[in-house]
What we know:
Number of domains: 2
CATH class of the largest domain: Alpha Beta
Number of helices: 21
Largest sheet: 8 strands, mixed
Strand content: 15-25%
Radius of gyration: 26 Å
Bound molecules: hexanoyl-coenzyme A
Number of strands: 17
Shape: elongated
CATH topology of the largest domain: 2-enoyl-CoA Hydratase, Chain A, domain 1
CATH superfamily of the largest domain: 2-enoyl-CoA Hydratase, Chain A, domain 1
Distance between the termini: 61 Å
Amino acid sequence: MSLGQRIHDFLQRTRALMKGGGEQAVQKQVAQGKLTARDRVARICDADSFHEYDLFVEHSCRDFGMDGKSLPGDGVVAGTGTVQGFPVCIFAQDFTVAGGSLGLAHARKITKIMDHAMKMGVPLIGINDSGGARIQEGVNSLAGYGEIFYRNTLASGVIPQISVILGPCAGGAVYSPALTDFVFVVDRISKMFITGPEVIKTVLGEEISMEDLGGARVQAEISGNAHFYAASEEECFEQIKRLVTFIPWNNRKTSDPFPPRPPRPGKHIESIVPDDPRKPYDIRDVVRAVCDDSDFFEIQELWARNIVIGFARLDGRTVGVVGNQPAYLAGVLDVDASDKAARFIRFCDAFNIPLLSFVDLPGYLPGVDQEHAGVIRHGAKILYAYSEATVAKITVIIRKAYGGGYIAMCSRHLGADFVFAWPCAEIAVMGPEGAANIIFRKEITGAADPDAMRQEKIKEYQDKFANPFIAARDGHIDAVIQPEQTRDFLLHAIRVSERKTEQRPARKHGIPPF
Ligand code: HXC
């Protein structure tokens, strides 16, 4: 055969494989409002940057009608490309081929590109659209998932791992994303569950739709499994492109700097926080008032809204922001807020991203529900994560910093490098009302006018403790600053801490309260 004939033959075979599961399956995919695997990769990656590998891989299953059955690419597209100029390794499961189900060959394509990402030190993006373990392949498909989970774990904290859920993802197809750093979902398209509606009906006799069980909104708002929620695939891809600009390629690098920009003109920072400490405000307004270009990229916006996390830039450098949200549940720490913040803090620490914490909270949420849900164990995660972190840690106490909440929110005692407080900060074991009721109980109940006595004692406690000066006197905070000085102090702190180093005792690993 001449070289020309060989090239002709090769092109024909390639074209056939690139059609995935065939015209009918592709039409079904498109009719559901979904893009094909190759379209998705092409739209996430920069134009013409994607290079596909392992197109000719085939399965070797002989059971249940699989003998000789062609599954193009074994149902997954894998390769390398660039996103916003950043190199990435990427794979996309092709639902048009056997429902994107995962057999051994399919899994080996994924583990190969994962190994590649680790060696090259570049982020991994996985697009999941799969019915889970390929039933016909039995234990081999379970083996395939196990090998993926193992690599997700080895890659954790070494390269950023991004998962995109773009279809019904069952079983193993959701546990791999759960081990990664960021999970993206799209309205009406993404479904995530371990046991599907059929199993639930059989085992529990309960009927539930796939959407209500594990649709995008459920995962972004109720379970917290998803970090980013989008109305369409296109919007989701824009979110991914934005995310990669904030994070470094790997744990040996820092995020690429951007040109520094001042915040956009907006609300004057002093007018954001109401004079009355019981009145709420949106902490994100404070973040936007101090960060470059007022650009705050929020993560897990819909879940555990009492704490806000996300990326911003100061002086062009990425910072990870954690802030109590007085506009939701008064910004208390609870089980979910602790989980949300702790994981994000660990991501930032692993990837050399300084932490900027804004404090305004009455403490941990009291109640039987929280105690029984394990607020001790979950709440401890945030203590652990902040204490463990060795990146620059900068804390701004805006208003309330009571009790365990004060300690937990990156206090000096958990290793903060800079602690600033606004003049309206109240740093105490608890709020003045609660404190007065406990320590002055006898005086209040024994007084001729208990209410007047209570008010007097509340004021006494307020004057003594509900201010930043006691903490400043004892060096627990570094400076009391005016609100409009906040950005200057933060920029300075970021510059000073650029080469921060902090050692920890040698150990195999810590044992966080998972
Ligand atoms: C083999 C599968 C498959 C699977 C789907 N298909 N899932 N083939 N193994 N796991 C095939 C279908 O047979 C069908 O093939 C094609 O993919 C499209 O599937 P449909 O059912 O027609 O699509 P749809 O109606 O959209 O339903 C999608 C679905 C459903 C909800 C994902 O297919 C489904 O429930 N699949 C099984 C999910 C599951 O329980 N997986 C195992 C999880 S256990 P044809 O040839 O007809 O087009 C697991 C173990 C690991 O993953 C756990 C680790 C912790």
